[in-house]
Amino acid sequence: MKSPAVVNFSREPHSVEIREFTKPEPGPDDVVLAVEAVGVCGSDLHQWTSSHSWPVNYPVVLGHEFGGRIAMLGSAVRGWKEGDRAVSETAAVIDTNSPMTRAGLYNLDPNRKGFGYGVDGAMTRFVRVPSRCLHRVPDTLAFEHACLTEPCCVAYNAVIHNARIQPGDRVIVLGPGPIGILCAAMARLAGAEVALVGLERDRARLEIGKAYGCEVIIGDASAWAKSRDGLGVDGVVDAAGASAALKTALELVRPAGWISKVGWGPQPLGFSLDPLVQKNITLQGSFSHNWPIWERVLAMLASGQLDVRPITGGIWPLEQWHEAFEKMHSGAIVKAVLKPA
Q1: For 106, which of 80, 94, 121, 215 could close a Cys bridge (C-beta 3.0–4.6 Å)?
Q2: For the whole prediction, is pTM greater than 0.70?
Q3: How many whole angstroms separate alpha carbon 44 and alpha carbon 251?
Q4: Is the dihedral of CA 140, 143, 145, 147 positive or negative?
Q5: Does 258 reside within a domain?
Q6: Rounded to a whole number, what is the largest CA-CA distance in the chain?
Q7: Is residue 294 part of a domain?
């Protein structure tokens, strides 16, 4: 059985097209998921424009934010049945003997390969998924919302797990992309006063931040950062896609404050890190997520504590992927969802 798939077939810019993709067969420990909804990530756009900085196994089906119903079960899979509703983590390939995996930090296993770049992803009708990656989705949670569990987990890891927010803190989030807005939402849920910062071209996305109770700032955030006591904010989340944002973060954070860096920026820094030392700042990188984070975020989505509707800019049929990509790339919307069915 063949179905259409959004395939990234070359390193050349815009080497993405619809191709026919054969329905996969499950291995003993796998399931085949019938995809109901798949979110478009900034990394999908980076591979589309060839502005990414990670290795890709071409050709590959894009898509790593997805949910669906189990269509087929491998012979060794237990605890699941056909028709069950599920979302999947992104660590499609890991070394089970890696010290990081054994510590539960398989997201940091150097041999990790993810959907959409290392193995075929979910921008198609059927995707093969290791059963260890699955999480149950309650009937009350729509797939177009459940499929965005993954970026919510990225934000949870960056803001709740890897930062040290306390109620009453003042936090700045640099970069109003999907991850930045979700980081701001997480910081608000943790009890912080939050400002979401971007550029003039980000005005439409910044407005979404207001739905999560954030201040929005275009350009220089220094005045807001220093408005309490002149020293700066307690923490900065760098969710921008440019290395230069780290320099801004160092300027805005107070002495003994923290920076959680979740945004990728392949450019050389080109500035001194002495302020990091002088101000005694904690700089924390944050990458991906693991099992307990997924369970917590799903509970937040199912209960309504976390609402992804403000960031969802539209739902497109899979065949209209290009329009969805363009809408996100231009900044007209924050997040696009594709429906393969």
Answers
A1: 94
A2: yes
A3: 31
A4: positive
A5: yes
A6: 64
A7: no
Residues in the chain: 341
Burial of 78 (0-12, 13-18, 19+ CB in 10 A): exposed
Mean pLDDT, residues 99-116 taken together: 97
Residues 21 and 87 grouped into a single domain: yes
CATH number where 214 lies: 3.40.50.720
CATH number, domain containing residue 47: 3.90.180.10
Task: Give the domain extent around 228.
Answer: 155-285
Residue 298 lies in a domain: no
Instruction: Examine the domain organization and report whether 103 and 171 are in the same domain.
Output: no
Same domain, 172 and 254: yes
- Checking DSSP bridges between strand 91-93 and strand 65-73, what pairing results, if any? unpaired
Answer whether the bond into residue 59 is a cis peptide, omega within 30°. yes
How far is 307 from 303, CA to CA, in rounded Å? Answer: 9
Q: Are 175 and 263 in contact (CB under 8 A)?
A: yes
Dump pLDDT digits (tens) for 170-214.
999 999 999 999 999 999 999 999 999 999 999 999 999 999 999
Tell me the backbone φ, ψ of residue 299, rounded to 5 degrees. Answer: -65, -40
Query: What DSSP element (H or E) covers 70?
Result: strand 65-73
Same domain (yes/no): 44, 131 = yes
Give the CA angle between residues 100, 281, 151 to the nearest 5°: 50
Same domain? 192 vs 142: no
SS (H, E, C) 104-137: CCHHHCCCCEEECCCECCCCCCEEEEEHHHEEEC
Q: What distance in Å separates the CA atoms of residue 83 and residue 94, rounded to the nearest whole number?
A: 26
Tell me whether residue 333 is in a domain: yes
Instruction: Report how far residue 68's alpha carbon sits from residue 88's, in angstroms, rounded to the nearest whole number.
Output: 9
| Alpha-carbon span 145 to 66, nearest angstrom | 10
Same domain, 271 and 329: no
120 burial type by CB count under 10 A (0-12 exposed, 13-18 middle, 19+ buried): buried
Specify whether the CB–CB gap between 190 and 234 falls below 8 A. Answer: no
Q: Report the domain count for the chain.
A: 2
Tokens 């995809």 belong to 35
Q: Quick check: 1 pLDDT over 90?
A: no
